[in-house]
Amino acid sequence: MLYTLITFVGLFIAATTIAVIYYVKAEEYRTGLADLQREMDELATSTERNSLSATVGERQARTSYIGSMIAYVDTALTMIVGGVPAPDSAEAKVKTANTQVADGLNVAANHIDIGDPNRIGLVQAIKALAAEVDNAKKENALAAERDKIQQAFEDEQQRYVDLAASLKQTTGERVQTLTEERDQAREDLKTLNGMLLKTQALLNTAEDRIKQAQDEVAKLEPGPDRGVLAHQSDAEVILVDGKAQVVHLNIGSDDHVYPGLTFTVYDRGGSIPEDGKGKAEIQVFDVSKTYSAARILKPDINNPILAGDVAANLIWDAKRKNTFVVAGDFDLDGDGELDADGIDRIKRLVTKWGGEMADSVSLDTDFLVLGKQPAVIQKPSIEEEEIDPRAMARHEASLARLSRYNQLLDQAQSLWIPVFTYEKFLHFVGYNSQVSQAGAF
């Protein structure tokens, strides 16, 4: 019985001790929980905690809502004031931003009316400044246009003043001024003509001496016969179809023959005459690799084309490009009137058939084609010049054309370069029967 009583008392004491310990711990936990609840309420109310996701937005990876909010605040501050925010409290960061925004608005207030600085935002201020800048640009453009108009007005005003001063001169004074200017121009022209004549005399003397020396050399050793190129055949007639008036030549596309090319046909075994006249003219219309077919344009029933006859074209050459110089006046179609573009049309024909053009005679020139000697326009009198101020210029231009014509001829003769008249040129290219047709050049 005593043992049971002792056991009961021991258990009672142990239970009481444990109960006291649990009570003390429970009080500590309750006090800690109250402190935590108070701290949490200070951090955010229950309503704010329930709407934390909606208030902060998407939480950044491995970051709390508060950390995400701080990051968003830093981003906003960077957009407002620029740079990287200092590691300060949110309050300090916002104060810094407010200070800089206030300073910016004060600067903007010097240019725009911002009203209440506590009510206008930075974005509205920027938009207002942008509008002010646009207005300033427009005003600057208007100012520049105004200055331009002002300058034009001043220029016109100066011209008016000059014209008024000129009109104040009497008719006699004006005539006297113009007469003096004309006389001075004539004196200058006379001086230049004297210098030109002196230079021309020296040039003529030098050319005479050169010609005499060339004549002496020619007596000892004749010059080269460069005209031999014009008397060489380019093809041979290999077949004649008398009924169809067609001949076949031994040259084709391999030799750079093409439709439209013309040739003059000469007797076989004979030489090409000096005047270039042949027994017929032909025009290629079909080309194969090694031969071509041509129509007989101007047949001679008394002297028909035979197999073995030769054909030639002064311009065309299968192996080289001949160089031509053209000068003078040309009546291309024989209607009795000179063609103003005669030289240009002959140049087009030469280049069309593979030749090359040059403006001056040199050692590289193969042939010189001369038209009629240019006529010199009569020198106008003083009265005619007063009526037509360009009359003297036309006279001098005609002198220059004649001088160039004679100079090219002299140079060609001194270099033994063959000279062809227009008619001779047509015979040598097989084109004499074509010139009267439309589109010949």
Task: Report a brief summary of the structure.
The chain is an alpha/beta fold. It is built from eleven helices and ten strands. It folds into five domains: 42 residues; 55 residues, no CATH class; 55 residues; 85 residues, FlgT, C-terminal domain (Thrombin, subunit H, Beta Barrel); 106 residues, Rossmann fold (3-Layer(aba) Sandwich), CATH 3.40.50.
Fold and architecture overview:
With 441 residues, this protein is α/β, with parallel strands linked by helices. It has five domains: 2-43; 53-107, no CATH class; 169-223; 228-312, Thrombin, subunit H (Beta Barrel), CATH 2.40.10; 323-428, Rossmann fold. Helices cover 53% and strands 10% of the residues. The protein has eleven helices and ten strands. It has helices spanning 2-43, 46-50, 52-56, 65-81, 90-108, 122-168, 171-220, 342-352, 382-387, 391-414, 422-428, and strands at 235-241, 246-249, 262-266, 280-287, 292-296, 310-312, 323-327, 356-357, 367-370, 419-421. The chain has a six-stranded antiparallel β-barrel with strand order 1-2-5-4-3-6. Helix 4 packs parallel to helix 5 (90-108). The longest helix is centred in the middle third of the chain and has 50 residues, at 171-220. The radius of gyration is 54 Å and the shape is elongated.
State the CATH topology of the largest domain: Rossmann fold
CATH hierarchy, class of the largest domain: Alpha Beta
Shape: elongated
Q: Total domains, how many?
A: 5
Element-by-element helix/strand order: HHHHHHHEEEEEEEHEEHHEH
Class from helix and strand fractions: alpha/beta
